[in-house]
């Protein structure tokens, strides 16, 4: 098995991130530094990443209803609570599939399957990521229409999105809008609404592909079943 795939299967990082670790000289096989991406791992080889031995684990997949104020990371140098802290019973080295801002709530998948992660987050697979945003300002077809054509955010155009106006409260100067995107760029939803003159006051991800948060309160999680995992794989294949 190629070294980047081995690292991904061990749940340390996605395959692309594994390639970065290799090129940075942070991976060894039997004590020898590896820098060639084509290097293969044989039975009995000892693989270490940043000095820590790694092993292939059973693949696991969890669905979390992320609460506000929790970091979408495996650790935090400032000592803040992370999503991993919310799943203390999980023994495998899981990590979040993509990220939600600390103040964004809702659906987050965690796994130790690097290939699955790549499939889920790559824009070409066009997996629906659905958010509900409470906005400062009055949303209407005119100011939301640019979202459906794509917007220039940080020098790069977004893919066309879909929206649905759920509620408008003129007396409070606020609106509730559902937005469906296929990407996961940094602060993307907030920046998209800001680009059309609306500021996000509250944001939650309510759906990811075929998954929703039915039965999960904030902070609660559950393991995905084989059918749900298969449906996500199929969604990625159809979008590609």
UniProtKB/TrEMBL annotation:
Matching Gene3D superfamilies, A to Z? Answer: Alpha-L RNA-binding motif, Pseudouridine synthase I, catalytic domain, N-terminal subdomain, RNA-binding S4 domain
A Pfam family recorded for this sequence: S4
Q: Does the keyword Isomerase apply?
A: yes
* All residue ranges annotated as the RNA-binding S4 domain in the record: 1-64
Stored SUPFAM superfamilies: Alpha-L RNA-binding motif, Pseudouridine synthase
GO terms of molecular function? lyase activity; RNA binding; rRNA pseudouridine synthase activity
Q: Does the keyword Isomerase apply?
A: yes
Identify the keywords attached in UniProt to this record, alphabetized.
Isomerase, Lyase, RNA-binding
CDD domains named in the record: PseudoU_synth_RsuA_like, S4
* EC number(s) on file: 5.4.99.-
Q: Which PROSITE patterns match?
A: PSI_RSU, S4
Q: In its UniProt record, which GO terms are filed under biological process?
A: enzyme-directed rRNA pseudouridine synthesis
Q: Which GO terms describe its cellular component?
A: cytosol
Give, as one word, the top-level EC class.
Answer: isomerase
Name the PANTHER family on file.
Answer: PSEUDOURIDINE SYNTHASE FAMILY PROTEIN-RELATED, RNA-BINDING S4 DOMAIN-CONTAINING PROTEIN
Q: What family does the entry list?
A: Belongs to the pseudouridine synthase RsuA family.
Concerning NCBIfam families, the annotation shows: pseudouridine synthase
What is the protein name given in its UniProt record?
Pseudouridine synthase
Which organism does this record belong to?
Answer: Streptococcus ferus
């Amino acid at each position: 098995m190629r070294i980047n795939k081995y690292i991904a299967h061990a749940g340390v990082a996605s395959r692309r991130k594994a390639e970065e670790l290799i090129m940075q000289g942070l991976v060894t096989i039997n004590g020898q530094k590896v820098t060639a991406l084509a290097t293969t791992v044989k039975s009995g080889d000892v693989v270490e990443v940043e000095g820590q031995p790694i092993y292939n684990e059973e693949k696991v997949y969890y669905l979390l209803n992320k609460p506000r104020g929790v970091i979408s990371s495996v650790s935090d140098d400032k000592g803040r609570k992370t999503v991993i802290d919310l799943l203390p019973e999980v023994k495998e080295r899981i990590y979040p599939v993509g990220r939600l801002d600390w103040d964004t709530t809702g659906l987050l998948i965690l796994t130790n399957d690097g290939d699955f992660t790549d499939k889920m987050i790559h824009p070409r697979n066009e997996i629906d990521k659905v958010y509900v945003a409470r906005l400062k300002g009055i949303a209407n077809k005119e100011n939301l229409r640019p979202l459906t054509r794509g917007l220039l955010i940080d020098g790069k155009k977004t893919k066309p999105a879909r929206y649905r106006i759920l509620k408008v409260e003129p007396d409070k100067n606020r609106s509730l809008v559902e937005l469906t995107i296929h990407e996961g760029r940094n602060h993307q939803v907030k920046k998209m609404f800001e680009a059309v003159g609306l500021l996000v006051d509250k944001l939650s991800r309510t759906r990811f592909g075929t998954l929703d948060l039915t039965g999960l309160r904030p902070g609660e999680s559950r393991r995905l079943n084989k059918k749900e995992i298969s449906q996500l794989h199929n969604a990625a294949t159809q979008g590609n």
